[in-house]
Write a structure and sequence with these properties.
Number of strands: 0
Order of helices and strands: HHH
Strand content: under 5%
Structural class: mainly alpha
Keywords: Coiled coil
Largest sheet: none
Shape: rod-shaped
């Protein structure tokens, strides 16, 4: 009887060892998949970081170019001076050459018409 007990216990222990081996293999497989996923995610993050670094570098270059051009822009005082000059000159009141010619023609006609009318009286 004792021999049967030992055989049963041995079989039971072998089954448990086999079950633990299966669990360990499953954990190992899952861990490997997780590690591979993590490695892939890390590579994607590194790639994104490199792209961001490149974008930041491009932005810095453009900002430097803009900063270098700032000296060419008009200052507030210069804009105020230009505004006051424009208000003083008021280019919207200027006339074109054709408009001046029309005004002169009209005035000359009026003058000659008046002269002619006065001579006929």
């Amino acid at each position: 009887m004792q021999e049967i007990d030992i055989t049963k216990r041995l079989k039971y222990l072998e089954e448990r060892v086999s079950m633990f081996n299966n669990i360990i293999e499953s954990i190992d497989s899952t861990t490997r998949l997780s590690v591979n996923d993590i490695k892939e995610d890390l590579n994607n993050i590194k790639r994104d970081i490199n792209e961001l670094k490149e974008d930041i570098n491009n932005i810095e270059i453009k900002l430097k170019a803009i900063t270098d051009q700032l000296s060419l822009f008009a200052t507030t005082d210069q804009l105020k001076t230009i505004t006051s000059m424009m208000d003083y000159i008021n280019p919207f009141d200027f006339v074109t050459k054709k408009e001046v010619e029309k005004i002169i023609d009209k005035k000359l006609r009026e003058y000659f018409d008046e002269l002619y009318n006065n001579d006929n009286k």
